[in-house]
Design goal:
The two termini are about 45 Å apart. Helix 2 (about 80-95) packs antiparallel against helix 3 (about 110-120), helix 8 (about 315-325) runs parallel beside helix 11 and helix 8 packs across helix 12 (about 485-495). The longest helix has 15 residues, at about 80-95. With about 550 residues, the chain is an alpha/beta fold. An eight-stranded mixed sheet has the order 15-14-23-22-21-16-17-20. A five-stranded mixed sheet has the order 2-1-5-3-4, sandwiched between helices. The chain contains 15 helices and 25 strands. The protein folds into three domains: about 5-95, Ubiquitin-like (UB roll) (Roll), CATH 3.10.20.740; about 130-210, 2-Layer Sandwich (Alpha-Beta Plaits), CATH 3.30.70; about 280-445 and about 455-505, Rossmann fold. It has helices spanning about 20-25, 80-95, 110-120, 155-160, 190-195, 260-265, 285-300, 315-325, 360-365, 375-385, 465-475, 485-495, 505-510, 525-530, 535-540, and strands spanning about 5-10, 10-15, 50-55, 60-65, 75, 135-140, 140-145, 170, 180, 205, 220-225, 230-240, 240-245, 280, 280-285, 305, 330, 340-345, 350, 370-375, 390-395, 410-415, 430, 440-445, 450-455. The structure holds iron/sulfur cluster (2 copies) and FE2/S2 (inorganic) cluster. One iron/sulfur cluster binds near residues 231, 260 and 350. One iron/sulfur cluster binds next to helix 4.
């Protein structure tokens, strides 16, 4: 790609032609607050925070940088007194009506208003005006505090350009301007993104503080299991509990800066969890379950395994080997939204395929050269009495599992996150991990992209990760086998297939395990991206 040379405070910087000027400044490491700018939205240049002095001949002019692209030979000064004073003045103006309540604001610590004051403020304020103290409900999941709103219009542009609903607008003018709905509450499936892109604490969820303060959280990079789109997520954890899920824009395979609300809130499903291993409804030790399952599956003459699209590739790999040992046939269930894919104006897609790793499970069975039937084929076999022992895997927190009619007389083992409602009461219940926040391994999404899934927390009670359960079944008891070892074996056994020449190392370098920073949303601001306040530093201070 062609490059152009610009000069920033006398320093030459080479950047790709066509680069946004503000992004070029940020990438060159210059502190520049930018409350109205978002890389996936249009740039109205309304906040005037990103001002720089540009040399034009013998004179200087102040320009906004967020709505321009770099120009060969451009000479900018960020430190010129005029530019410094202009930015400082914009900050002071922004604070005229802004309440000084950072101590109780949920956004504190990851707020771009705080950041602007930190970067451009002059430490003094000459005046204050009465603020607009009014909280309004914009929709079931969204509260607007007009006192904290800086009228950046990111939310208005999101509704126009990304959700395509035009649900928000600026109402009134001048000092009386406020953000308002256009009559109807906001009720689409992308509302959580508004919380991320609002630069201040103006937009929040209903209720009291819903999560720990930003500086107590650690971010874990993972992949959304809500559908086959495989959006890149960051699971923020504090005090051993998941606090929230955010989009992760550094993921090579992310769907831009957005997550749908299924992906963002799906981990909160109010599902009764299976928390103990059980035999015929009675809680027992894991060893007893392993012995019973192994005995019945090994002795079965017509054994079957029903795979789940919520299994990781490594778990499917172990089940493939168990299928060989047990001489069992493999089937894979599918969960498809009959409404089809839902595509948003920018191309963001919520896929009809609800299972996150159906493609990966299929590819694993192909790599192992094992035939794979579908759920309907298993139903036919069950109906014909051609199965005498079935090992079935669920894994859905949201009831996508298909209804399967299993005769009473055959042995049934179910590995699932919740008491089985989709299949009859099992002889053996193996309490396992949710793919939302408790699974370690890899998925292949609907476009064939291999991505890492990471466990942020432990499964509840005596429930165990799916991989741990399957490795124990394979090795005859708990052991140290791990998903990365299983992936290496899968890669070797797939010498010319989908997993050939891949290893965890490649994935780790593309998708860091923990960002160390749990701040902001999909678009982390400039200081956040430079790691000014890293979570590790906070951890050291605790
Ligand atoms: S509510 Fe937030 S995103 Fe919307 S205009 Fe106000 S500060 Fe900007
Ligand atoms: S589109 Fe699918 S993968 Fe992306 S956030 Fe929504 S449910 Fe998750
Ligand atoms: S005017 Fe450039 S970031 Fe707001």
């Amino acid at each position: 790609m062609a490059t152009v040379r610009i000069h920033i405070d006398g320093e030459p910087v080479d950047v790709d032609a066509g680069t946004n000027l503000l992004m070029a400044l940020l990438d060159a490491g210059h502190a520049m607050a930018h409350p109205c700018f978002h890389p996936s939205l249009s740039a109205p240049a309304s906040c005037r925070m990103c001002l720089a002095a540009e040399e034009v001949g013998d004179s200087l002019r102040l320009i906004t940088t967020c709505n321009r692209t770099v120009v060969e030979g451009q000479r900018l000064s960020l430190s010129h007194p005029q530019a410094v004073a202009a930015r400082s003045g914009v900050v002071e103006d922004m604070l005229l009506r802004h309440p000084a309540e950072c101590a109780i604001c949920e956004r504190a610590g990851e707020c771009e208003v705080q950041e602007a004051v930190f970067v451009h403020g002059n430490g003094a304020t000459g005046a204050t005006l009465p603020g607009r103290r009014k909280k309004v409900e914009l929709g079931p999941r969204l509260i607007l505090d007009r006192g904290r709103c800086i009228l950046c219009t990111r939310c208005v542009r999101f509704e126009a350009e990304v959700s395509g609903t035009d649900a928000l607008a600026v109402s009134g003018s001048g000092a009386d301007a406020v953000i308002d709905t256009c009559g109807a509450p906001i009720a689409h499936d992308m509302t959580g993104n508004l919380l991320d892109l609002c630069p201040s604490g103006a937009l929040s969820e209903p209720g009291e503080r819903l999560h720990a303060p930003a500086w107590q959280m650690t971010g874990i990079s993972s992949t959304c299991p809500g559908c086959a789109s495989g959006c890149a997520t960051r699971i923020d954890v504090a005090n051993g509990r998941v606090q929230r899920v955010k989009p992760r824009s550094d993921g090579a395979d992310a769907q831009g800066y957005w997550l749908c609300d299924v992906g963002r809130y799906g981990w909160q499903a109010e599902t009764e969890r299976l928390t103990t291993p059980q035999l015929r409804g009675t809680a027992v030790e894991w060893d007893a379950v392993f012995a019973e399952v192994a005995e019945h599956m090994e002795q079965a003459r017509r054994g079957a395994i029903l795979l789940s699209p919520f299994l990781s590739n490594e778990e499917a790999f172990l089940l493939g080997h168990l299928a060989r040992r047990w001489e069992a046939d493999l089937f894979l269930w599918q969960a498809t939204d009959p409404a089809g894919d839902r595509v948003w104006p920018t191309g963001f897609t919520i896929r009809a395929e609800r299972g996150p790793n159906r493609a990966g499970v299929r590819a694993v069975t192909q790599a192992l050269d094992l035939p794979l039937g579908d759920g309907a084929a298993l139903e036919r076999r069950l109906g014909a009495g051609d199965v005498d022992a079935l090992f079935a895997v669920g894994g859905s927190l949201h009831g996508e599992t298909p209804e399967v009619t299993v005769p009473d007389e055959l042995f049934l083992a179910v590995q699932d996150v919740q008491p089985s409602t989709w299949i009859r009461n099992p002889d053996a219940a193996l309490a396992s991990s949710s793919a939302w926040t408790e699974k370690e391994g890899t998925f292949v999404d609907g476009l064939g992209r291999l991505q890492r899934v990471r466990a942020a927390v432990e499964p509840p009670g005596e429930a165990r990760p799916d991989f741990w359960i399957l490795a124990a079944l394979w090795h005859g008891g708990p052991n140290r086998d791990s998903p990365d070892q299983a992936f290496s074996r899968l890669s070797r056994s797939s010498s010319s297939g989908s997993f050939a020449h891949l290893d965890y190392g490649i994935l780790e370098s593309r998708q860091r395990p923990a960002e160390g920073v749990a701040f902001g949303g999909g678009w982390t601001s400039q200081l956040q991206r430079r790691g000014l306040i890293a979570v590790e530093d906070h951890a050291k201070r605790r």
